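Here is one chain, start to finish.
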Amino acid sequence: MNSVSFQRACRGGGHTVTSKERRKLVTQARLFHHGHRRRSSPVSVFREAGGFASDLLLTSFVSWLWSLHDARKIKITSWWAIPVLNLLIGLSAALPFYMYLRYDKAEIAPTLTT
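Its structure:
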């Protein structure tokens, strides 16, 4: 609601706007202009960041365990690169690299290329 329509709504064709109606119109105009923003405190921001960090650590740890178990089963010798990539770049680089190593060693590689 812009200022012109706000003034028209306040005038209302001879209708006197009460202070309660004016507050309601001002609140509606602010919500329309700013949107429904949630005011977050620094504590809630750290709480959300802590949740994200714990998810990332848990996912990394589980992927390390899975890739170590699978690498021993398939006999991948360069498994040491997976935790290094995960710590230096991230899980988004470590998992595709492990899948590449796994594809080269797995029994399904010759059947997919024919």
